[in-house]
């Protein structure tokens, strides 16, 4: 039985540790149970070994069936968990460091996350979704950096859950893509999720719900272990790892110079005359009185006017909160780790002109509008009113909470991932094509169901009015 097998594995693991420690004790002439040996036998470390054996083993087993880059990124995940184990052992013998000391202490874990992130960069791989889901999932291991309620992080249990959400965006794409193609990929994606939910989450809940417990009498963390990467190693671009050691959000808008309408309102509220700085228009400057302007438009001028709209005028990228009420995300290109986490139900989010990017909205907001975006992914916790997709091409939207209304207008290619809480909402479409809605299965292990919304309709005049019905196709 599985329970008996698990018990046998734990007993064998404990016996192996005791034998190793006994041999080490006799060789050194010291007593068993001092220093690192005591930490290794700590119940929290034994439980972490069980976590790796039970959950990480399943991911590795599925990856070995696939091979290639999927196996490579999975081995990096294995390395990251091994690194966290080493850090958990050291924490039990180390005094709580300050922020700079914590950054130095966590360098080994940071280095592994950088290694995983680099695999997602460059030319897009056929297994990009696998690489992204695995690399993004590693941010969950940063729960170990929690030092208290004022450190700028969520509590450890919530942090693990939130960190998995971004990885799940890509994990769901694997489930959909390989649902009927290759069960090994589906097995891998499900095993990866189980590693964090319930695996790591339940481990943290049982042993470190309030964060790591540092030693009161241990040594000071002054340097990283020998496995630490060189000081020149770049910081990971993903928001959670990059902001571990600072209370400031990587996308904090308060420190940025205000732009757009917020700058205009600030100028108006400053008390200066609104017309100050404007030049006076004299009579000779008016078009009707200028000798160089006539009512005839020559061919060259006409051609210039016609061709000018084809020149794209893309503004600067923005991610800012305007007037305390509206989050504006504009002109982001190729940014896979955009995050809005300090939001509430009184605020709205407007996403405009973004391409090849992914935005995660961690809190519930009033309204979300996605306008003129291409190859854009948006993951949101929920909305009070509606989520609107307008004038877009190839977008993916995932709702993790409730959404009373989702509307899709003038859009070609839209994938909607719904949570069970959002299934009762309404979906309205107009002038749109290739709209697929994916809903969770009845059970936690069931596959997602995919439904293509009709884009063609038949209209038949009957009994004095037209009766409209959707046209279904065999391939839909």
UniProtKB/TrEMBL annotation:
Biological process terms in GO annotation: actin filament organization; cAMP-mediated signaling
GO molecular function: actin binding; adenylate cyclase binding
Ranges of Low complexity composition bias in the record: 221-230, 243-255
All copies of domain C-CAP/cofactor C-like, residue ranges: 316-453
InterPro entries, per database record: Adenylate_cyclase-assoc_CAP, Adenylate_cyclase-assoc_CAP_C, Adenylate_cyclase-assoc_CAP_N, C-CAP_CF_C-like, CAP/MinC_C, CAP_C_sf, CAP_CS_N, CAP_N
Region Disordered: start-end pairs: 221-260, 275-318
Family matches, as SMART domains: CARP
Basic and acidic residues bias spans: 280-293
Segments of skewed composition (Pro residues): 231-242
Record GO cellular component, one term: cytoplasm
Protein family membership: Belongs to the CAP family.
Record's protein name: Adenylyl cyclase-associated protein
Organism per entry: Anisodus acutangulus
């Amino acid at each position: 039985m599985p329970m008996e097998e698990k018990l046998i594995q734990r007993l064998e693991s404990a016996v192996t540790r005791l034998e190793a420690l006994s041999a080490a004790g006799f060789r050194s002439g010291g007593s068993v149970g001092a220093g690192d040996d005591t930490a290794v036998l700590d119940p929290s470390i034994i439980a972490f070994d069980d976590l790796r054996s039970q959950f990480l083993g399943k991911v590795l087993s599925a990856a070995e069936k696939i091979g290639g880059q999927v196996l490579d990124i999975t081995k990096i995940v294995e390395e990251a968990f091994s690194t966290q184990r080493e850090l958990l052992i050291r924490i039990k013998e180390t005094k709580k460091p300050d922020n700079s000391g914590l950054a130095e202490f966590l360098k080994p874990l940071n280095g592994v996350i950088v290694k995983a992130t680099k695999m997602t960069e460059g030319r897009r791989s056929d297994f990009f979704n696998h690489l992204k889901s695995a690399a993004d999932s590693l941010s969950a291991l940063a729960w170990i950096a929690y030092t208290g309620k004022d450190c700028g992080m969520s509590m450890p249990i919530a942090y693990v859950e939130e960190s998995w959400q971004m990885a799940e965006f890509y994990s769901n794409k694997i489930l959909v893509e390989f649902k009927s193609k290759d069960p090994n990929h589906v097995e891998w994606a499900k095993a990866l999720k189980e590693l964090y939910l319930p695996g790591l989450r339940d481990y943290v809940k049982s042993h470190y719900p309030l964060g790591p417990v540092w030693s009161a009498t241990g040594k000071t963390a002054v340097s990283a272990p020998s496995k630490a990467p060189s000081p020149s190693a770049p910081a990971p671009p993903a928001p959670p790892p990059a902001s571990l050691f600072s209370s400031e959000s990587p996308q904090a808008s308060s420190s940025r110079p205000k732009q757009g309408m917020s700058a205009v309102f600030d100028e108006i509220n400053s008390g200066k005359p609104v017309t100050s700085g404007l030049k006076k228009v004299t009579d000779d400057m008016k078009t009707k009185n200028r000798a160089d302007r006539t009512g005839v438009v020559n061919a060259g001028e006409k051609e210039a006017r016609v061709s000018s709209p084809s020149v794209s005028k893309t503004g600067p990228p923005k991610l800012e909160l305007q007037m305390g009420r509206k989050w504006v995300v504009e002109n982001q290109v190729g940014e896979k780790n955009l995050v809005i986490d300090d939001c509430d139900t009184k605020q709205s989010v407007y996403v405009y002109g973004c391409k090849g990017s992914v935005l995660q909205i961690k809190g519930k907001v009033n309204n979300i509008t996605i306008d003129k975006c291409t190859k854009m992914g948006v993951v949101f916790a929920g909305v009070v009113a509606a989520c609107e997709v307008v004038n877009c091409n190839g977008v993916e939207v995932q709702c993790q909470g409730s959404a009373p209304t989702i509307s899709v207008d003038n859009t070609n290619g839209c994938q909607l991932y719904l949570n069970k809480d959002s299934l009762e909402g309404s979906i309205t479409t107009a002038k749109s094509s290739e709209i697929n809605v994916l809903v969770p299965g009845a059970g936690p292990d069931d596959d997602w169901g995919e439904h293509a919304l009709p884009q063609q309709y038949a209209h038949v005049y009957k009994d004095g009015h037209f009766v409209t019905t959707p046209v279904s196709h065999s391939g839909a």
